[in-house]
Design a protein that fits this description.
Blueprint lengths: L6 H6 L9 H14 L1 H27 L11 H5 L3 H22 L2 H7 L3 H34 L14 H26 L2 H20 L3 H8 L3 H9 L10 H25 L3
Helix pairs in contact: 2-7, 3-5, 3-7, 5-7, 5-8, 5-9, 7-8, 8-9, 8-11, 8-12, 11-12
Length: 273
């Protein structure tokens, strides 16, 4: 007696045909991201902080404007001050994209359905990166236009045609996106929500304090490599003498994010879920 091995047998028994691919994983990760309540809350806080705090800063600057404010005043950076608060919420969302599944144990179901773990991580990074980029750029441009509208005469204001303004506004959105991907990589490495958030915030807030306590000859050289310092250079029209230029600094930040994701991917394969 012979047993048929034709493809129709598998189809008749309801077995899935073919293998999963990147497009399917991206759809799956998009469904996860948009259906989790924390995503909407975190993105909402990012929008409120990014736009609201920038509006408050520019309105306050205009109400207390004096002729002496003209010297060294950066209208573009002032209108983007909310970006420096939005970096925390975007980073927290990047952490939750990974750590939430570890916390609930659903990561095991994810890896059972898609055993190729690096591909799962790539799908998470693509989906989160696109969402973070769109939200960050929208927030940056709205904050900029609103801020410049509030900086009425006699206060100095800028336009996108001003030298470096478009680069600073678009760059601030890119900065938030890449910083979020860095946080996602940290979460893959640590796998614990509280630990990953603590590490991410420590890198942004605590590490600069440690560096500032070093002798100036050492601290000034180390400071330029810190993510927060790179972000300030990207958002500002004029960089300090010891800072990286905006685009080289941005490439360095991309390197940090890539390193965290690659190391996270390596550990993802080596460790149990």
């Amino acid at each position: 007696m012979t047993v048929s091995t034709s493809p129709t047998v598998g189809a008749a028994q309801g077995l899935p045909a073919g293998r999963y691919g990147m497009s399917g994983l991206i759809r799956s990760e998009w469904t996860k991201l948009r259906t989790v309540r924390s995503t909407m809350w975190t993105l909402g806080v990012t929008v409120v902080l990014g736009i609201g705090l920038s509006a408050i800063a520019t309105a306050e600057t205009r109400s207390h404007w004096t002729p002496g404010n003209r010297f060294g005043f950066d209208a573009t950076r002032t209108s983007l001050i909310g970006v420096f608060f939005g970096q925390f919420t975007i980073g927290i969302l990047g952490v939750l994209v990974v750590s939430a599944e570890y916390g609930t144990g659903t990561i095991r179901a994810t890896f059972s359905a898609a055993p190729r773990r690096p591909l799962v991580l790539a799908a998470k990074a693509v989906v989160f990166g696109m969402v973070a980029l769109v939200v960050s750029e929208v927030v940056a441009f709205i904050a900029y236009f609103l801020g410049q509208a509030l900086l009425t005469a006699p206060a100095i204001h800028s336009t996108l045609n001003s030298p470096g303004a478009l680069r600073a506004v678009a760059g601030s959105g890119l900065y938030l996106c890449v910083l979020g991907l860095f946080a996602l990589g940290v979460a893959v490495i640590i796998r614990h929500t509280a630990g990953a958030i603590s590490a991410f915030i420590g890198i942004l807030l605590v590490l600069p304090l440690i560096v500032s306590a070093l002798p100036s000859s050492i601290g000034n050289e180390v400071e330029r490599f810190l993510p927060a310092h790179i972000g300030q250079a990207i958002v500002s029209l004029h960089t300090g003498p010891r800072s990286f230029a905006p685009w080289p600094g941005f490439l360095l930040l991309c390197g940090y994010a890539a390193l965290a994701l690659v190391l996270g991917g390596f550990l993802l394969v080596r460790r149990d879920a």
